[in-house]
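Make up an example, fold above all:
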Amino acid sequence: MGAAVGFEGVVALLDRFPALAGVDLSVCAGEVVGIAGPNGAGKTTLLRACAGLVPLRAKRAEVLGFDLLADRRAVRRHVGLLGHRAPLYGDLRVADQLRHCAALLDADASEVSSAAERFGLGGRLESVAIRRLSEGQQRRVALACLTIARPRLWLLDEPHAGLDASSRAALDELLAGAAAAGATVMLATHETGRAAVATSRQVTLVGGRVAAGGGVRDETDSSDVA
């Protein structure tokens, strides 16, 4: 399968600090890759770099066929990034937030209904303002919006945080289905047990670099692709 992410010697400076200090990483289309590492290792910066949100220096930095060194903005409409804070409108009701996402993406009502059902956002929650939801509920709304968006590359930072058991299972099922349909998933998590369940391969960052041998997929191991 084709490469979704191809990084060679990628460096990202945040206030002159090398958050990424020469990352070499290859991710194939259809993979679900876990990004592990201690706090400050560069996990969040790596996801943001793949989304075209961070200026880079590199030998090569390609995502979904786009050259991030030439134009890092072009890839943005093809990726879905969920960070620690859900990118939602606090004054909108849940149903309105989902319909707003659908309108922006030209998705139909059935996709909205399916996403809402997957993450338990029907019933009374439909009329609740986003700002009145718990952190876990807001995360469920954000994940439903990503489901509607159907990105080619899913970039998720601690996606299971704040979710109950049923929502975690729904998320794992969603990511497996997205990968089976050809999308690529990269998720950063501290939960090693959950990562083992949800991912097909794990990459460890240490000091802004990929740990030795962890950045390149072994093409002989077909089990790496969902």
The first strand starts at residue 3 and ends at 14. Confidence is low (pLDDT under 50) at residues 218-226. The helical segments are 43-50, 94-105, 109-118, 135-149, 165-180, 192-198.
